[in-house]
Amino acid sequence: MTETGPRYHSLSLCLKRTFGESVRKITLDAGLGCPNRDGTTSRDGCIYCNPRGSGTGAFAQGVSIAEQVDRGINFLSRRYGCRKFSIAYFQSFTNTYATPEHLSAIYTEALSKPEMVGLAIGTRPDCVPDPVLDLLADLARERLVWVEYGLQSIHGRTLELINRGHGPDAFFDAVDRTKKKGIPIVVHLILGLPGESLDDMRQTVRAVVAAGVRGVKLHPLYVVRGPNWKSCM
Fold this sequence. Notes:
The chain has helices at residues 11-19, 65-80, 100-110, 130-139, 156-161, 168-180, 198-211, and strands at residues 24-28, 86-90, 116-123, 144-152, 185-190, 215-219. By secondary structure, it is of the alpha/beta class.
């Protein structure tokens, strides 16, 4: 903390200044896949990824996007006193990994309630073809929309070690094309990846900031036991 407040601009503060009150995310599970799991890139996934994804498992239980939104609104209203505003956060797996038509349908369904002010789309930088970015740009004309790209490290050797399935160039290409569409970008990074020094981590942060991302989400490292976990020991 400084005398005037935090040394960083938090997401909660940014949203509160934008909408004049607290805004909360509703985590959604659209049941989309991942090229690093379906054999397109790999079948093993990244070493830190749960095979069931990082979401709620709601899609596998047959819960529609609309019902997930309703449940989220009810929960947030009771727990935090949210009155109107929520962000639909597509989190589990790769949420641009489908046709633009299918993505348009699920994004529109998530925004169908008047309480929903925007979308946060978690995805991979190698899964954002231009037609999908065009779709997001269209939605961003009326709602708050941002893309969250998983990167984890800027170092190619590390991305190979964690079985990420793409290199740094894919990230910079996605960032460049996304910025040209006027869509804000958040990047996910993992601190403490195997073999990385403090200087390596600093280089990653400097590189993504220089690329022009609007936000950074920092994660601690954990490794899921499986086919690749011993490679990082």
